[in-house]
Amino acid sequence: MRLFAGANYPFIANQRYAFWASGIAIGLGIIVMIANTIMIGSWLDYGVDFTGGTLVQVQFQQPVRVEQIREALAGAGAPEITRFGEESEFIIRAPLAEQAAIEGVADTIEEALRARFGQDAFTVVRTELVGPKIGGELQQKAGFAILFSFLLTLIYLAVRFEFRFGLAAVIATAHDILFTLGFLAGFRIEVGLPTVAAVLTIVGYSLNDTIIVFDRIRENLKKAGRRPNEPELVNGSINQTLPRTVLTSGTTLIVLFTLYLLGGAVIRDFAAVLIVGILVGTYSSIFVASPALLIIRRYWAAKTAKKERRAAAAASV
Hints:
Low-confidence stretches: none
CATH architecture of the largest domain: Up-down Bundle
Shape: elongated
Order of helices and strands: HHEHEEHEHHHHHH
Largest sheet: 4 strands, antiparallel
Number of domains: 2
Structural class: alpha+beta
Distance between the termini: 64 Å
Strand content: 5-15%
CATH topology of the largest domain: Multidrug efflux transporter AcrB transmembrane fold
CATH superfamily of the largest domain: Multidrug efflux transporter AcrB transmembrane domain
Radius of gyration: 25 Å
Mean pLDDT: 83
């Protein structure tokens, strides 16, 4: 049994609905990012990796309330306290005001907790210390990594196919990243280095899926002759590659959902970002990349025809 054998869904005919849905989703994400900038001073909830600070993960032997920990750390500034994984496990994040305070903050937190709960009441699972300068550099490098991946995508597809294919793929990939950033902003998921790794993985996955569809479009264009019905040809190409698209995405999502449900709190946010990215990447290869390619090809064809008419008019004069 072949999945989606003989599929003939009108993807291109419904492209305007997909564009509206994508526009609304990305627009809402941008609004949320602006709201976050006003309310918390940053469009995304950057973690210690990017802002600099001290992160201490502690596990108590007995159940403890967040309010009790907050009271114990009242003299250690205003650290952020969140439950992590088990009921008795917590993450304490303290932003850094000065580079010189890096070592002292972790010690102050541990001493305050021992004074309140006892020497053996908890175990320090991990401690992360990041200076503000390093955090700023990591933000820049993360942004450059994503922009560099865009540039390589454009060059690769321009060489393998043609510039128009590369431009359509970049539009689809930008759509995926904007949607993912909106998801991160809307659900206030902490952005650390694993999140950047997830976003770059989404770029690669979305690009791979788009290339499969574009490869079939190129093959069908060669077979169709000089004046093909491009909307019909592109829609047929999407349907022909639909079994592979669905099976690849489906098997990947099974693994990611397993990681999300069973992988524990440490990997849950990473898996959630990948799940959203894979879903959006699959959607964009069908409803964004291919329609964008059609629009770009029509624009190029109209521009070429206009130049030819001008050249013919000049020659006749």
